Amino acid sequence: MNEQLRGIEDIQGLYLFDVRLAVKRVRLNRLLWQLTREDEREKFRQDEAAACRNAGLDELETRLVLERNWIELIRIGANFFALEKLIRVSGKSNLEVYAAQRGETLEEYLRTRRVPDAV
Amino acid sequence: MAEIIGGIGTSHVPTIGVAYDRKKQETPPWKPLFDGYKPIAKWLADRKPDVLIFFYNDHMNGFFSDLFPTFAIGVGQEYEGADEGSGRRALPPIKGHPDLAAHLTESLVNDEFDIATFQERAIDHGLLSPLPLLWPSQPDWPAAIIPIQVNVVQFPLPTPMRCFKLGRAIRKAVHDYPGNLRVAVVGTGGLSHQLHGERTGYNNTEWDAEFIDLLERRPEKLASMRHADYIRLGGAESVEVIMWLAMRGALADTVNRLHQNYYLATTTGMAVALFEEPAPGHPDILGHAAASSAVHAGASQ
User: Fold this and answer.
1) pLDDT value at B180 more than 60
2) Does A104 reside within a domain?
3) CATH code at B94?
4) Which residue of B has its CA nearest to A33?
5) Do A88 and B84 touch (CB under 8 A)?
6) Do B195 and A94 touch (CB under 8 A)?
7) Is residue A37 part of a domain?
8) Of B178, B185, B248, B293, which cross-links B7 as Cys (Cβ 3.0–4.6 Å)?
9) What is the pLDDT of residue A119?
10) Do B264 and A112 meet the contact criterion of CB atoms below 8 Å apart?
11) Which of B61, B85, B159 lies nearest to residue A4, judging by beta carbons?
12) HSE on the CB side for B135, CA within 13 Å?
């Protein structure tokens, strides 16, 4: 247990990315990180399943990427900032993914915000 | 010696960069944010620092989990902006300051602050989001930067106290530099926000206001808090405000808060604040060690 994080167990809706998850999900996160390169984005767009296979993703990781199942990707250990590359490649805004993680539509999420047109 | 003229804390929300590139500065949803930077841009234009030392973090762009340094200082000639998944922004590359960066690295490592060095790594929105609001980018940036990358994306993170001490070590190193340079320090990130999990969208405006007050007056209280405290009070990703603490550590014990702006639009409490160093000759300019020994001397009399 990380002493700096003692006491957060009761906070719901929190999946902190640590070095243990970084090891367990290194292939998934590397695939996401490599989408910072246009050549990798192009390969991914051409054949998403093949890109996942070539990156060594397991069946679950591959399915969640293909489904764009944002909340499950976070729960199993995708780093949110690595995941942002897939959000970009998918043509989504971060706000849409914030909403999806809460089980809301974008419109529902924006209704809870102070300045919904600051997009 | 080189001189520290002040410090700036600023959010680094990527959407600020998008709004800037789409020229939304004068639109109603964005004007309160952009206007809040104008007094600080003017201060920088008037005071003309030669170097901005940035405590910023990479978001899995220039670095990845194959090697994610806890602290890493940019020692290179020049930095490009990162491609974060949809191409690079149309901003000129930013000059580094290799001589000061080498001096800072030597001073830190000899003080047993074993920082990693990097060059030729792309710089992402952790630094680039606020930079064009502080400095003009055209025809070129007016001076140099030294980026100091802090890991706030893969636990374990450096403790708040360690970040504060990093700032202090940077202050000492800047003052020991043999050349004449004017330096401002910048800490980026925050304030309250959470971007992942069902708790996404969490904010705490009261805590955000208290944080800036404590940063000015009682930074040692913030330094003694734990990551868990920051996560509970401000949301998971708000823990990155420990980079403001590094900036504060690089300043004198007493500073003048000249300006502050806060704007919560959708998901992140977006703040910017300017802290100016005391005038030369003021006792606090001697720095923390001198200040605390004066306190001890006073207590023993």
Assistant:
1) yes
2) no
3) 3.40.830.10
4) B60
5) yes
6) yes
7) yes
8) B185
9) 85
10) no
11) B159
12) 25
Chain B residues in contact with A95 (beta carbon < 8 A): 266-267
Q: How far apart are CA B192 and CA B207, in angstroms?
A: 8
Q: Specify the length of chain A in residues.
A: 119
Q: Is residue A1 part of a domain?
A: no
**In the block, residue with structure tokens 């971060």:** A94
Q: B164, B246 in Cβ contact below 8 A? A: yes
Map residue B80 onto helix, strand or coil.
coil
A115: its two tokens: 């300045």
- Give me the average pLDDT of each 10-residue run along chain A (119 residues): 95 98 98 98 98 98 98 98 98 98 98 94
Range B201-207 contact pairs with CB under 8 angstroms and sequence separation of 24 or more: B201/A98, B201/A102, B201/A109, B201/A112, B201/A113, B201/B267, B202/B234, B202/B235, B203/B235, B203/B264, B203/B267, B203/B268, B203/B269, B204/B233, B204/B234, B204/B235, B204/B269, B205/B262, B205/B264, B205/B269, B207/B233, B207/B234
- Residues in a beta bridge with B146: B53
Secondary structure element (H or E) that encloses residue B170, with its range: helix B160-175
Question: Range of A29's domain?
Answer: 16-90
- Residue A1 touches partner B, C-beta closer than 8 Å: no
Euclidean distance between the first and the last CA atom of chain B, given in angstroms as a whole number: 33
Dihedral pair phi/psi, residue B142, rounded to 5°: -75, -20
Give chain A's domain count: 1
Task: Answer whether residue B224 shows pLDDT above 70.
Answer: yes
Range of the domain at B248: 3-300
pTM confidence score: 0.94
B200 inside 8 A of chain A by CB: yes
Q: What CATH number has the domain bearing residue A80? A: 1.10.700.10
Residue A4 forms part of a structural domain: no
Residues 115 through 154 of chain B touching chain A, CB cutoff 8 Å: 153-154
The rounded distance, in Å, linking the Cα atoms of B186 and B180 is 20
| Separation of alpha carbons B233 and B243, rounded Å | 16
Q: Which helix (H) or strand (E) holds B146?
A: strand B144-150
Q: In chain B, how many domains are there? A: 1
Nearest to A88 among B86, B156, B194 (CB): B86
Residues from chain A that touch B201, judged by Cβ atoms under 8 A, are 98, 102, 109, 112-113
